[in-house]
Amino acid sequence: MTSMQTSKPTLNPALRPFWTTRARNKVLYGGRSSSKSWDAAGFAIFLADHYPLRFLCTRQIQNKIEESVYALLKIQINRFGLRHRFRILDNKIINRHTGAEFIFYGLWRHIEEIKSLESVDVLWNEEAHAITEAQWEILEPTIRKEGSECWFIFNPRLVTDYVWRNFVIDPPPNTLVRKINYEENPFLSSTMKDVINAAKTRDPETFEHVYLGVPRTDDDNAVIKLSWVEAAIDAHKKLGFEPSGRKRLGFDVADSGADKCANVYRYGSIVYWADEWKAKEDELMKSCNRTYNAALERGAEIVYDSIGVGAGSGSKFEEINADRKAADPWRSTAVQYTKFNAGEGVHEPDEVYQPGILNKDFFANLKAQTWWLVAERFRNTYNAVKNGEKFDVDQMISIDSDCPLLEKLKYELSTPHRDFDKNGRVMVESKKDLAKRDVPSPNIADAFIMSFAPTDTSVDVWRILGSQ
Asked: Any signal peptide, and if so, which residues (predicted)?
C-alpha cells in the first residue's frame, strides 16, 4: 500500500492522466472551486514522499508564508496521515525519509534571488495568471535540471495576460494544457453547489468568468478596451467606408535598452501597415531613413516622437529632403514631418471637450488627449459594428486585417491604464509605470496613436526648399 492509499478520498480521478503524463510545462486552469490547487498539493505530497525532489513554490505577491501554498500542503500531509514523515518548518517543508523539500518565494520581491537557485525539479506557479514576460524570462532558464517540470495553476483573468496568451492560446512545445471546472470536482460540497447555482442565475457573465474559467476580454482600467479594438478589425469593410483624408506615418523612436522603433501608417480612418525594429541610439539616421522611405512609398507625412533621442529626427528628415533636392533640383516630392511631444500641453486648450469642461481642464497633456480621442474612435466603431449606431467616418477607426504585427498591436493598444494627475485631469500610464508592471514599452501602439495626433503638420518642406 502506498502512502496515498487511505480510507479518505485523495486526488481527483479526472486529473490523474494530467499528473502522471510527463511534460516540461503543465498548465491547469479553470474556474473557482475546481480542486486545481488542492489536487496539485496532493500530487506534490505524493511525489515528495516517494522521490528526493525539490519543489519551488511561487506566487506573485507573498508577504508571509501563510499566503503561499504552504498551508495547503500542510492540510494534505495531515489528510494522508503523513505528519510523521514530514518536518514542517517556518519557511519550508522537508520529507524526513526522501529528503524532498518545498521552498516558497514571492515573485514580485524575490525574482532576482530565484535566479541563483539550483536543482529545482518542480516549479509550482500558483495564481500563475499574474506572471509577466520579464519574470518568465528569468524563471524558465532557472528550472534547468534534467526532467524538471513547470506547473501553472490559475484562474484566468484577462485574455491579454502573458500566461494565457503564451501557455493556453499558443503553448510552447512539450506543454500539457488542461481545463477543469467545478463540475469535475468530486469533493464539492452541497453548500458550494448552491452558491454556484445562485451565481449562475444572478449574473451569467460573472459566473462564466469566476466558475467556468472564461477570461475577461476587457481590462476595466484600460484606456482602450480590447473588445473595441477587435470590433475595429476590418470595420471599413463591415461598415462600407473607403479611406479618405490624410495619409500619416507615426514614428516611435527607441530611446533605451530593449526598446524598439516602430512605424504605423494610416490613410484617413484606416490603419493599413505597421513595422517594428531594433536600433541603437547612434543609428537614428538609419531609422529616420527607414521611416522616410516608408512615408515616401505611401505618400504620407510623418509624425515623430520628439522626446529623448527622437528630438533629432526633425533635423534628419530635413537633411534627407535637402539631399534629395540637391540630387534632383526638379524633384517634385518631399516628405512633410511634424513632432509629437507627449508631455506637451493639450491641443486647442480652450476648446470645449465636454459640456462645461475645456480640453485643458480634462487632459493633463497631449499624450492623454490623443489616447482619449483614439479611444473614442474605437468606442464609436464598436457601437457601430455591434449595435448599428451611426457615426461619421472621421469619428471611427478601422484596422485592416492584413496589417502586419496585428496581434501585438491589439495587445499593446489595450494595455496602458488610465491615470490622473494631482489636479484630477486624465493621464495615460507612463512607460515607467508600465515597467513597474513588467509591461514592455508599447512601441507600435505609440506609433499608432501618433498617427492620429491632433497636431498641425509642419510647413510644406518642399515649398521651402523650392523657394531657395
From this structure: none
- Return the CA Rg of the chain: 27
> What length is written for the chain?
468
Structure-block grid coordinates of residue 416: 496602458
Q: State how far the Cα of 303 lies from the Cα of 284, in Å rounded to an integer.
A: 15
What pLDDT does residue 332 have? 63
As given in the structure block, the three cell numbers for residue 98 are: 526522501
| H or E stretch at 318 | helix 313-327
Contact partners, residue 94, CB within 8 Å, separation at least 6: 86, 87, 100, 101, 102
Characterize the bridge pairing of strands 122-126 and 261-267: unpaired
Contact 425, 363 (CB under 8 A): yes
Query: Which region, left, alpha or beta, applies to residue 28 given φ > 0 means left and ψ of -120 to 50 means alpha?
Result: beta
For residue 251, what is the enclosing H or E element?
strand 247-252
Lowest mean per-residue pLDDT among 3-12, 71-80, 370-379: 3-12
Among residues 443, 370, 360, which one has the least CA distance to residue 409? Answer: 443
> Which string of DSSP letters, residue by residue, matches 7-44?
SS--S-GGGHHHHHS--SEEEEE--TTS-HHHHHHHHH
pLDDT digits (tens, 9 = 90+) for 172-222: 999 999 999 999 999 999 999 999 999 999 999 999 999 999 999 999 999
Please report the sign of the dihedral spanned by the C-alpha atoms of residue 386, residue 388, residue 393, residue 396.
negative
CA 462 to chain centre: 41
Find the helix or strand (DSSP H, E) in which 150 lies: strand 149-154
Grid cell 519543489 — which residue?
A: 55
Cβ count near 207 (within 10 Å): 18
Is 164:158 a contact under the CB 8 Å cutoff?
yes
Nearest to 413, CA basis, from 389, 429, 433, 393 = 429
171, 128 Cβ separation under 8 angstroms: no
What is the residue type of 205? E
Of 247, 270, 226, 240, whose CA–CA distance to 390 is shortest?
A: 240
**Contact yes or no for 126/58 (Cβ under 8 A):** yes
Measured CA to CA, the distance from residue 248 to residue 455 in angstroms comes to 12
What tens digit of pLDDT does each residue of 11-41 get? 899 999 999 999 999 999 999 999 999 999 9
Residue 68 · residue 126 · CB < 8 Å: yes
Cell numbers at residue 8, please? 479518505
Domains of the chain, with CATH numbers? 13-211 (3.40.50.300), 226-465 (3.30.420.240)
